[in-house]
């Protein structure tokens, strides 16, 4: 297949430079990293095997699954190797993060229908591939839908996935209780007759509601209550007043997924043909949407980088800091916790050293421009403009 890269990533920790943490779990931490020989940014998942003594088979399965998969909508591992008591799994770096992160930071009330249709179509393609190869994902949710800098959408996290083809024979069902309660299918909770691929279809329907509302149904309740409500209540749907903005086809698609009897749910292949996905857009639709989310997050960093450097220049000249960013009408203390939108820059430098004053003015001007330009960001703009902005920002960290 064309998707598979011919690159053979190195299996020595010395060939990777770990940067900041981008994710953390009970026994694993994910880092943004540089693959030095290829000069390529990757993600490295570091798993502490001493904390996973009881689940070594699960780890082996996760690594095996991620290494063998070959589909553009499924995150695969470049390579894996051991470093002391840890296992390193090297993966593509998904710069835009998860759909959950994007939604929480920039779209707390949920995405528009066209966005949801486009996201779900790509996730469904991943499920068709996994199911046809005998895999149940078992943890489909917004937090496991990742987006890269070019807008590619990939389904990730195979820590709880299951293979229905063991020793060459197709198992009829699984009987293990895994997944996340809010997204878990009723048959997985009940553990009566086992479950199959259709459990992913239920989770897919819950994910659709999560993307529409900004949170999953029952997410405010403790796990045990979620289990009871899922089993005893009618399936959730797009029934609220605010859901009038969504089309009939969307409501029908969600309804088809959230049927308690798994036999009555469609297969992933059949669901992909649902008329709702006519609302989906092409890949070129993504850059503006996700870069907007990135720009909003990075603007806070930019603001403080410039402000801190401006203060440093003043202090370097032997004067008291006159950086007076006003927050609700008072001087800002460096330990204050505040929302970005509360900040108003009011820096007035005293010009003595011409070179430093010029740099100072440039910093102040850039800080103000960053604040002004964010609301004006248009999805039709060339994404390279944003990447250039980020490149310039990185200069201040060097």
UniProtKB/TrEMBL annotation:
Transmembrane segments: 285-307
Official protein name in the record: Serine/threonine-protein kinase fray2
GO molecular function: ATP binding; protein kinase activity; protein serine/threonine kinase activator activity
Protein kinase domain mapped to chain residues: 16-277
PANTHER family given in the database record: PROTEIN KINASE SUPERFAMILY PROTEIN, SERINE/THREONINE-PROTEIN KINASE FRAY2
SUPFAM superfamilies: Protein kinase-like (PK-like)
Family that this chain belongs to: Belongs to the protein kinase superfamily. STE Ser/Thr protein kinase family. STE20 subfamily.
Binding site for ATP: 45
UniProt-listed Pfam families: Pkinase
Keywords assigned: ATP-binding, Kinase, Membrane, Nucleotide-binding, Transferase, Transmembrane, Transmembrane helix
